[in-house]
Amino acid sequence: MRALRLGVNIDHVATIRNARGGEHPDPIRAAHMAAAAGADGITAHLREDRRHMTDSDIARLVAEIRLPLNLEMAATDEMLEIALKNAPHAACIVPERRAERTTEGGLDAAGQHNSLKRFVGSLNDAGVRVSLFIAPERRQIEAAASLGAPVVELHTGPYAHADGSAEELQRLADAAALAASLGLEVHAGHGLTFANVGPVAAIPELAELNIGHFLIGEAVFTGLDASIREMRRHMDEARQQGAGA
Ligand code: PXP
Question: pTM of the prediction?
Fold first, then answer.
């Protein structure tokens, strides 16, 4: 079975910093710690309202960290310009609504096919690996493939909110198999915790999980290093059991 990468989303280190202004805690320090703890990549979402990461955080991440940076961004001209200027390793296009607390739904790659084409094309041309954050649905996966995105990230929020239901898990597994059969690299994320990550990590087609809120929250109790290492352990164990099954 292929290796499963862990992308650590550090947005909420910036959320805590921004609660008081100033520079502490520094998300770039968290990125360095994540690298030392075994993360394979760093994920950061530059939102339109800059509620957590800022433009200068993104520039510093690109300049200062060695791990691949996955920039989450809405499909807007402003974000496209920032992505092209910073040239992160990857960009994950997400839907964004101002009033939402976090990314709530998947991108409507099927419904917004024409408007997304320009974003996927420009990022592809710039050598930025594009992923589309979508629900685990056939029409969204097929739309992502026809848009020429090399990667899809499957939204695990409904699975997490349904307490890891078998039905939602099956939807993720079927979607991952379909996406892989169309030649897409498959990632997943949102709402993953120590308790629910295992069955997702065991889906053999998955290449990467992106996890943030739980890891940063857990770090309050155990430290960031321990929280990331424990997540890695859950992922690796589930992967090994899946391989042996
Ligand atoms: N993947 C995407 C596309 C996201 O928008 C988020 C949240 O920013 C995550 C993964 C990580 O979700 P969580 O913070 O719930 O682990």
Answer: 0.96
Please give the backbone phi and psi of residue 178, each rounded to the nearest 5 degrees, phi first.
-65, -50
Beta-bridge mates of residue 41: 7
pLDDT (mean) for 60-85: 97
All structural domains of the chain, each given as residue ranges with its CATH number in brackets, are 5-244 (3.20.20.70)
Tens digit of each residue's pLDDT (9 = 90 or more) over 85-126: 999 999 999 997 766 676 678 999 999 989 999 999 999 999
Query: What is the C-alpha radius of gyration for the chain, rounded to an integer number of angstroms?
Result: 17
Candidate of 159, 213, 227, 234 to mutate for ligand 1, largest count of ligand atoms within 8 Å of Cβ: 213
Q: Which atom of ligand 1 is nearest to the CA of 214?
A: 16
CB 156 less than 6 A from any atom of ligand 1 = no
DSSP 62-77: HHH--SPEEEEE-SSH
Q: What pLDDT shows up at residue 214?
A: 98
| CA–centroid distance, residue 239 to ligand 1 (Å) | 21
